[in-house]
Protein: DUF898 domain-containing protein
Amino acid sequence: FYANSNLAERNFEYHATGKQLFIGFLIAVGIFILFQIFSRISPIASVLLLLALFVAIPWIIWRSLIFNMRVTSFSNVHFSFTGALKQAYINFFVYPFLLVVLIYGLPLLTAFAPLIGIPEVLATILSISMILIIPAAFYVYALIKKKNTEYIINGTRYGQGIFETDVETNKFMMINLKTLGISLLVLLGFGVLMGLFGGGMEMISTFDPEAMEQGQIPEGFIGMIAMLYLFMIVAVILIMAFSITRQRTYVYENTMLDEKISFASTLRARDFAWVMLSNMLLVIVTLGFAMPWAKVRMARLMLENTFVDTSIGFDEYITQKQDEESSLGEQIGDAFDVDVGVAL
Structure:
Protein backbone atom coordinates (compact mmCIF):
# COMPACT_ATOMS: atom_id res chain seq x y z
CA PHE A 1 0.00 0.00 0.00
CA TYR A 2 2.67 2.50 1.01
CA ALA A 3 5.04 1.80 -1.87
CA ASN A 4 2.20 2.19 -4.35
CA SER A 5 0.95 5.46 -2.86
CA ASN A 6 2.54 8.32 -4.81
CA LEU A 7 2.71 12.09 -4.55
CA ALA A 8 4.53 14.18 -7.18
CA GLU A 9 6.21 11.00 -8.49
CA ARG A 10 7.54 10.18 -5.01
CA ASN A 11 6.27 7.27 -2.93
CA PHE A 12 5.78 6.32 0.70
CA GLU A 13 7.55 3.42 2.43
CA TYR A 14 6.67 1.26 5.45
CA HIS A 15 9.68 0.02 7.43
CA ALA A 16 8.21 -2.15 10.19
CA THR A 17 9.41 -5.75 10.37
CA GLY A 18 7.33 -8.86 10.86
CA LYS A 19 9.02 -9.39 14.22
CA GLN A 20 7.93 -5.98 15.51
CA LEU A 21 4.31 -6.49 14.47
CA PHE A 22 4.30 -10.10 15.72
CA ILE A 23 5.39 -9.02 19.20
CA GLY A 24 2.45 -6.62 19.39
CA PHE A 25 0.15 -9.41 18.20
CA LEU A 26 1.48 -11.80 20.88
CA ILE A 27 0.90 -9.20 23.60
CA ALA A 28 -2.70 -8.72 22.45
CA VAL A 29 -3.31 -12.48 22.36
CA GLY A 30 -1.68 -12.87 25.79
CA ILE A 31 -3.98 -10.24 27.30
CA PHE A 32 -7.01 -11.97 25.75
CA ILE A 33 -5.94 -15.37 27.15
CA LEU A 34 -5.33 -13.87 30.60
CA PHE A 35 -8.78 -12.30 30.55
CA GLN A 36 -10.40 -15.63 29.64
CA ILE A 37 -8.51 -17.41 32.44
CA PHE A 38 -9.29 -14.75 35.05
CA SER A 39 -12.96 -14.62 34.06
CA ARG A 40 -13.26 -18.33 34.92
CA ILE A 41 -11.09 -18.28 38.05
CA SER A 42 -12.03 -14.92 39.56
CA PRO A 43 -14.54 -12.45 38.09
CA ILE A 44 -13.01 -9.73 40.28
CA ALA A 45 -9.58 -10.36 38.74
CA SER A 46 -11.05 -10.12 35.23
CA VAL A 47 -12.68 -6.79 36.10
CA LEU A 48 -9.38 -5.50 37.50
CA LEU A 49 -7.62 -6.59 34.30
CA LEU A 50 -10.19 -4.72 32.21
CA LEU A 51 -9.73 -1.61 34.36
CA ALA A 52 -5.95 -1.86 33.99
CA LEU A 53 -6.31 -2.18 30.21
CA PHE A 54 -8.68 0.80 30.17
CA VAL A 55 -6.16 2.90 32.09
CA ALA A 56 -3.39 1.75 29.71
CA ILE A 57 -5.28 2.75 26.54
CA PRO A 58 -3.75 6.27 26.34
CA TRP A 59 -0.26 4.79 26.73
CA ILE A 60 -0.99 2.22 24.00
CA ILE A 61 -2.25 4.96 21.66
CA TRP A 62 0.79 7.13 22.44
CA ARG A 63 3.28 4.32 21.79
CA SER A 64 1.33 3.34 18.68
CA LEU A 65 1.60 6.85 17.25
CA ILE A 66 5.34 6.92 17.91
CA PHE A 67 5.80 3.52 16.29
CA ASN A 68 3.60 4.07 13.23
CA MET A 69 5.20 7.43 12.46
CA ARG A 70 8.74 6.11 12.85
CA VAL A 71 8.18 3.22 10.46
CA THR A 72 6.65 5.50 7.81
CA SER A 73 8.66 7.57 5.36
CA PHE A 74 8.05 9.63 2.25
CA SER A 75 10.82 10.12 -0.27
CA ASN A 76 13.36 8.67 2.20
CA VAL A 77 12.38 11.10 4.97
CA HIS A 78 10.89 9.53 8.11
CA PHE A 79 7.90 10.79 10.02
CA SER A 80 7.96 10.99 13.83
CA PHE A 81 5.65 11.82 16.72
CA THR A 82 6.60 14.10 19.62
CA GLY A 83 3.32 14.34 21.56
CA ALA A 84 3.62 14.04 25.34
CA LEU A 85 2.24 11.05 27.28
CA LYS A 86 0.63 13.39 29.83
CA GLN A 87 -1.44 15.06 27.13
CA ALA A 88 -2.40 11.63 25.75
CA TYR A 89 -3.93 10.75 29.12
CA ILE A 90 -5.81 14.05 29.21
CA ASN A 91 -7.14 13.60 25.67
CA PHE A 92 -7.87 9.87 25.64
CA PHE A 93 -8.75 9.27 29.29
CA VAL A 94 -9.81 12.38 31.21
CA TYR A 95 -12.01 13.98 28.56
CA PRO A 96 -13.82 10.73 27.59
CA PHE A 97 -14.32 9.96 31.29
CA LEU A 98 -15.93 13.38 31.78
CA LEU A 99 -18.20 12.72 28.81
CA VAL A 100 -19.32 9.38 30.28
CA VAL A 101 -19.96 10.99 33.67
CA LEU A 102 -21.94 13.76 31.99
CA ILE A 103 -24.11 11.38 29.96
CA TYR A 104 -24.66 8.64 32.55
CA GLY A 105 -23.55 9.96 35.94
CA LEU A 106 -25.83 12.98 36.24
CA PRO A 107 -29.03 11.14 35.19
CA LEU A 108 -28.25 8.26 37.59
CA LEU A 109 -27.49 10.67 40.42
CA THR A 110 -30.77 12.49 39.78
CA ALA A 111 -32.76 9.25 39.64
CA PHE A 112 -31.33 7.91 42.90
CA ALA A 113 -31.24 11.26 44.72
CA PRO A 114 -34.14 10.38 47.08
CA LEU A 115 -32.59 7.01 47.93
CA ILE A 116 -29.14 8.31 48.86
CA GLY A 117 -30.43 11.23 50.91
CA ILE A 118 -29.50 14.17 48.70
CA PRO A 119 -31.16 17.39 49.97
CA GLU A 120 -34.31 18.38 48.13
CA VAL A 121 -32.89 21.69 46.90
CA LEU A 122 -29.85 19.96 45.41
CA ALA A 123 -32.06 17.27 43.87
CA THR A 124 -34.17 20.00 42.24
CA ILE A 125 -31.05 21.64 40.83
CA LEU A 126 -29.93 18.27 39.45
CA SER A 127 -33.32 17.74 37.81
CA ILE A 128 -33.22 21.17 36.15
CA SER A 129 -29.64 20.62 34.97
CA MET A 130 -30.78 17.49 33.11
CA ILE A 131 -32.03 19.85 30.38
CA LEU A 132 -28.44 20.90 29.74
CA ILE A 133 -27.07 17.37 29.35
CA ILE A 134 -27.58 17.06 25.57
CA PRO A 135 -25.98 20.41 24.56
CA ALA A 136 -23.21 19.89 27.13
CA ALA A 137 -22.51 16.39 25.78
CA PHE A 138 -22.37 17.75 22.22
CA TYR A 139 -19.89 20.40 23.34
CA VAL A 140 -17.65 17.97 25.24
CA TYR A 141 -17.68 15.50 22.32
CA ALA A 142 -16.69 18.29 19.91
CA LEU A 143 -14.00 19.42 22.35
CA ILE A 144 -12.61 15.88 22.49
CA LYS A 145 -12.48 15.78 18.69
CA LYS A 146 -10.66 19.12 18.59
CA LYS A 147 -8.13 18.14 21.27
CA ASN A 148 -7.40 14.73 19.75
CA THR A 149 -7.01 16.16 16.26
CA GLU A 150 -4.62 18.88 17.42
CA TYR A 151 -2.68 16.46 19.61
CA ILE A 152 -2.04 14.00 16.79
CA ILE A 153 -1.39 16.46 13.97
CA ASN A 154 0.59 19.05 15.95
CA GLY A 155 2.72 16.26 17.41
CA THR A 156 3.59 14.83 13.98
CA ARG A 157 6.90 15.65 12.30
CA TYR A 158 8.13 15.08 8.75
CA GLY A 159 11.86 14.94 9.27
CA GLN A 160 12.36 18.27 11.03
CA GLY A 161 9.21 19.69 9.44
CA ILE A 162 6.33 20.53 11.79
CA PHE A 163 2.67 19.83 11.06
CA GLU A 164 0.27 22.41 12.46
CA THR A 165 -3.49 22.58 12.72
CA ASP A 166 -5.83 24.98 14.48
CA VAL A 167 -9.40 23.70 14.57
CA GLU A 168 -12.37 25.07 16.49
CA THR A 169 -14.76 23.26 18.79
CA ASN A 170 -17.82 25.04 17.39
CA LYS A 171 -17.05 23.80 13.86
CA PHE A 172 -17.14 20.20 15.05
CA MET A 173 -20.32 21.01 16.97
CA MET A 174 -21.97 22.27 13.79
CA ILE A 175 -21.01 19.08 11.95
CA ASN A 176 -22.38 17.01 14.84
CA LEU A 177 -25.64 19.00 14.90
CA LYS A 178 -26.10 18.54 11.15
CA THR A 179 -25.41 14.83 11.60
CA LEU A 180 -28.01 14.74 14.37
CA GLY A 181 -30.52 16.46 12.09
CA ILE A 182 -29.97 13.86 9.38
CA SER A 183 -30.30 11.10 11.98
CA LEU A 184 -33.65 12.49 13.13
CA LEU A 185 -34.89 12.55 9.53
CA VAL A 186 -33.78 8.93 9.17
CA LEU A 187 -35.68 7.99 12.33
CA LEU A 188 -38.74 9.73 10.93
CA GLY A 189 -38.41 7.74 7.71
CA PHE A 190 -37.96 4.55 9.70
CA GLY A 191 -41.12 5.35 11.65
CA VAL A 192 -43.04 5.79 8.40
CA LEU A 193 -41.75 2.44 7.14
CA MET A 194 -42.73 0.78 10.42
CA GLY A 195 -46.24 2.20 10.03
CA LEU A 196 -46.46 0.85 6.49
CA PHE A 197 -45.06 -2.45 7.73
CA GLY A 198 -47.74 -2.68 10.44
CA GLY A 199 -50.46 -1.88 7.92
CA GLY A 200 -49.11 -4.50 5.55
CA MET A 201 -49.09 -7.13 8.27
CA GLU A 202 -52.70 -6.31 9.12
CA MET A 203 -53.70 -6.71 5.48
CA ILE A 204 -51.87 -10.03 5.23
CA SER A 205 -53.57 -11.32 8.38
CA THR A 206 -57.02 -10.53 6.96
CA PHE A 207 -56.29 -12.60 3.86
CA ASP A 208 -55.02 -15.64 5.79
CA PRO A 209 -56.10 -15.49 9.46
CA GLU A 210 -55.69 -19.26 9.97
CA ALA A 211 -52.00 -19.11 9.05
CA MET A 212 -51.47 -16.28 11.51
CA GLU A 213 -53.20 -18.21 14.30
CA GLN A 214 -51.03 -21.28 13.62
CA GLY A 215 -47.84 -19.19 13.83
CA GLN A 216 -46.98 -19.54 10.16
CA ILE A 217 -44.96 -16.75 8.56
CA PRO A 218 -47.14 -14.95 6.02
CA GLU A 219 -45.92 -14.38 2.50
CA GLY A 220 -44.23 -11.01 2.20
CA PHE A 221 -43.25 -10.85 5.88
CA ILE A 222 -39.59 -11.72 5.21
CA GLY A 223 -39.45 -9.17 2.41
CA MET A 224 -40.74 -6.41 4.67
CA ILE A 225 -38.22 -7.26 7.41
CA ALA A 226 -35.41 -7.31 4.84
CA MET A 227 -36.50 -3.91 3.53
CA LEU A 228 -36.39 -2.42 7.04
CA TYR A 229 -32.93 -3.84 7.71
CA LEU A 230 -31.66 -2.60 4.35
CA PHE A 231 -33.05 0.86 5.02
CA MET A 232 -31.30 1.07 8.41
CA ILE A 233 -27.96 -0.21 7.06
CA VAL A 234 -27.95 2.27 4.19
CA ALA A 235 -29.06 5.09 6.50
CA VAL A 236 -26.33 4.40 9.07
CA ILE A 237 -23.66 4.28 6.35
CA LEU A 238 -24.90 7.57 4.86
CA ILE A 239 -24.87 9.26 8.27
CA MET A 240 -21.35 8.00 8.99
CA ALA A 241 -20.17 9.09 5.55
CA PHE A 242 -21.56 12.59 6.02
CA SER A 243 -19.90 13.07 9.41
CA ILE A 244 -16.53 11.60 8.40
CA THR A 245 -16.21 13.49 5.12
CA ARG A 246 -17.22 16.84 6.64
CA GLN A 247 -14.74 16.46 9.49
CA ARG A 248 -12.02 15.33 7.11
CA THR A 249 -12.54 18.33 4.83
CA TYR A 250 -12.46 20.76 7.76
CA VAL A 251 -9.32 19.27 9.33
CA TYR A 252 -7.38 19.08 6.07
CA GLU A 253 -8.11 22.65 5.03
CA ASN A 254 -6.79 23.85 8.41
CA THR A 255 -3.56 21.83 8.38
CA MET A 256 -0.14 23.10 7.25
CA LEU A 257 3.37 21.67 7.06
CA ASP A 258 6.09 24.16 8.02
CA GLU A 259 3.64 26.97 7.13
CA LYS A 260 4.44 26.25 3.47
CA ILE A 261 2.51 23.19 2.33
CA SER A 262 -1.26 23.01 2.65
CA PHE A 263 -3.72 20.13 2.30
CA ALA A 264 -7.25 19.61 1.02
CA SER A 265 -9.83 16.83 0.95
CA THR A 266 -12.38 16.48 -1.85
CA LEU A 267 -13.96 13.30 -0.50
CA ARG A 268 -17.74 13.37 -1.03
CA ALA A 269 -20.17 11.68 1.32
CA ARG A 270 -22.03 9.82 -1.44
CA ASP A 271 -18.82 8.39 -2.93
CA PHE A 272 -17.55 7.33 0.49
CA ALA A 273 -20.92 5.79 1.39
CA TRP A 274 -21.09 3.89 -1.91
CA VAL A 275 -17.63 2.38 -1.45
CA MET A 276 -18.40 1.42 2.17
CA LEU A 277 -21.74 -0.16 1.26
CA SER A 278 -20.51 -2.02 -1.83
CA ASN A 279 -17.37 -3.20 0.00
CA MET A 280 -19.50 -4.56 2.85
CA LEU A 281 -21.80 -6.43 0.47
CA LEU A 282 -18.89 -7.87 -1.51
CA VAL A 283 -17.06 -9.04 1.60
CA ILE A 284 -20.24 -10.72 2.89
CA VAL A 285 -21.10 -12.37 -0.44
CA THR A 286 -17.53 -13.66 -0.95
CA LEU A 287 -17.20 -14.80 2.70
CA GLY A 288 -14.30 -12.43 3.22
CA PHE A 289 -12.28 -13.28 0.11
CA ALA A 290 -12.92 -9.80 -1.35
CA MET A 291 -11.36 -8.07 1.67
CA PRO A 292 -8.06 -7.21 -0.10
CA TRP A 293 -9.95 -5.78 -3.07
CA ALA A 294 -12.18 -3.80 -0.70
CA LYS A 295 -9.15 -2.35 1.09
CA VAL A 296 -7.60 -1.31 -2.22
CA ARG A 297 -10.83 0.40 -3.29
CA MET A 298 -11.06 2.35 -0.05
CA ALA A 299 -7.37 3.33 -0.10
CA ARG A 300 -7.64 4.50 -3.72
CA LEU A 301 -10.73 6.57 -2.93
CA MET A 302 -9.01 8.24 0.03
CA LEU A 303 -5.78 8.99 -1.82
CA GLU A 304 -7.46 10.25 -4.98
CA ASN A 305 -9.40 12.73 -2.85
CA THR A 306 -6.42 13.95 -0.83
CA PHE A 307 -4.55 16.91 -2.28
CA VAL A 308 -1.24 18.47 -1.25
CA ASP A 309 -0.17 21.89 -2.50
CA THR A 310 3.13 21.16 -4.25
CA SER A 311 3.35 24.46 -6.13
CA ILE A 312 5.63 26.29 -3.67
CA GLY A 313 9.07 24.75 -4.18
CA PHE A 314 8.02 21.21 -3.27
CA ASP A 315 11.11 19.52 -4.76
CA GLU A 316 13.44 21.95 -2.97
CA TYR A 317 11.55 21.38 0.28
CA ILE A 318 11.86 17.58 0.01
CA THR A 319 15.56 17.85 -0.83
CA GLN A 320 16.07 19.99 2.27
CA LYS A 321 14.32 17.40 4.44
CA GLN A 322 16.40 14.60 2.91
CA ASP A 323 19.58 16.45 3.84
CA GLU A 324 18.31 16.96 7.39
CA GLU A 325 17.36 13.27 7.61
CA SER A 326 20.78 12.02 6.56
CA SER A 327 22.44 14.19 9.20
CA LEU A 328 20.00 13.23 11.96
CA GLY A 329 19.83 9.44 11.53
CA GLU A 330 16.88 8.47 13.73
CA GLN A 331 16.56 4.93 15.12
CA ILE A 332 13.35 2.95 14.64
CA GLY A 333 11.84 1.64 17.90
CA ASP A 334 9.36 -1.03 18.93
CA ALA A 335 5.80 -0.43 20.02
CA PHE A 336 2.24 -1.63 19.68
CA ASP A 337 0.57 -1.27 16.29
CA VAL A 338 -2.83 0.32 16.91
CA ASP A 339 -4.61 2.38 14.28
CA VAL A 340 -5.65 5.87 15.37
CA GLY A 341 -7.63 7.89 12.84
CA VAL A 342 -7.89 11.65 12.50
CA ALA A 343 -11.24 12.24 10.81
CA LEU A 344 -10.47 9.40 8.41
In short: Residues 328-336, 340-344 have pLDDT under 50 and may be disordered. The first helix runs from residue 18 to 41. The CA atoms of residues 58 and 89 lie 5 Å apart. Residues 168-253 form one domain.
